[in-house]
Design brief:
alpha/beta; Rossmann fold; 300 residues; globular; 5 strands; binds zinc ion
């Protein structure tokens, strides 16, 4: 590849973006779509770095460093703060598109663009339709189905996906030649194909320990048919949203692997998988956490 992206995977997508840049076929708006923690936001910052740096994306100049830190004057970030993007936020953004910049481009990175309500999205559509010259939008989403078709039609979509555990393991070995093979193997399994997650686990021993613990909990959980044990576990994790997410992710991963292996209880696992998905949606809608988890346990 032409630029030093320092990213695991997604080679096809990055090459496509390089080609757009090199051939002068840059879109004025990109939408990076795909699951959580595969590095979409990281890629969006790298694209901004490539476009803003005047020294071939050197990673060393003040521009490169500021873009990387999210503090570059003409690279504006609307980061995911877990709240919806309001019409006022969009108005401010539009005002900034009209200000004179100091750089070659004025770039707006909008993380989790699905957070825009209908009013905000409609106002955003106008600037997407006719952006001032030199303006580039790089949007990310993990829920492309939640976006207005009119928005999708105005952007160039680049789809990201999880990578395979085997691929991840190979890449981690290259990146961390000094780490034990065992740790790398575990991380490549536990990160469920998410490259961002894999790096996080490699660099945060505490998180890795949490993941290992939950993985073994999931194994015990599936072995035990004892409802009392299961309810006790639910009570234990209900207080921590983060642990529930990890638990669901790992449980889903383990059951999917069993289905792929042609496990004797495949049809039961498929039912459970759809129950987990349903429970995940209820939790997003803020239905009582314990109730949702207990219901799930009863249906297992
Ligand atoms: Zn640079």
């Amino acid at each position: 590849m032409k630029y030093n992206w320092s990213i695991i995977g997604h080679e096809k997508q990055l090459k496509q973006i390089e080609l757009d840049i090199e051939s002068g076929n840059l879109a004025h708006a990109y939408l990076l779509a795909g699951p959580n923690s595969v590095g979409k936001h990281t890629v969006s910052r790298k694209i901004a770095g490539i476009l803003q740096c005047e020294n071939n994306f050197c990673h060393k100049c003040p521009t490169c460093i500021q873009v990387q830190q999210g503090s570059h004057i003409d690279t504006v970030e609307l980061k995911d703060n877990k709240e919806s993007i309001k019409i006022d936020d969009v108005r401010k953004l539009v005002e900034r598109t009209n200000m004179t910049g100091q750089s070659k481009y004025k770039i707006f990175l909008v993380q989790s663009v699905e957070r825009m309500g209908i009013e905000a999205a409609n106002s955003f559509l106008k600037v997407l339709e006719e952006p001032p010259l030199g303006t580039i939008f790089i949007l990310t989403t993990n829920n492309i189905r939640g976006l207005l078709p009119t928005l999708i039609s105005r952007v160039r979509v680049v789809k990201f996906s999880n990578v395979s555990a085997r691929y991840l393991e190979e890449k981690l070995k290259e990146l961390y030649p000094d780490r034990e093979a065992d740790t790398i193997h575990q991380v490549s399994l536990l990160s469920l194909g998410k490259t961002g997650k894999a790096i996080h686990l490699m660099e945060n021993p505490d998180s890795l320990a949490d993941y290992r613990k939950i993985y073994s909990d999931v194994q015990n959980f599936l072995r035990s048919k004892n409802r009392v044990d299961r309810f006790a576990y639910v009570e234990d994790i209900a207080a921590e949203k983060k642990r529930i997410d990890i638990f669901f992710n790992i449980l889903t991963h383990v059951l999917r692997s069993k289905v792929l292996e042609g496990d004797a209880e495949t049809s039961k696992h498929i039912k459970t998988l759809s129950k987990i998905e349903e429970a995940g949606m209820f939790l997003k809608k803020n239905v009582n956490t314990r109730l949702v988890l207990e219901n799930l346990m009863l249906s297992l």
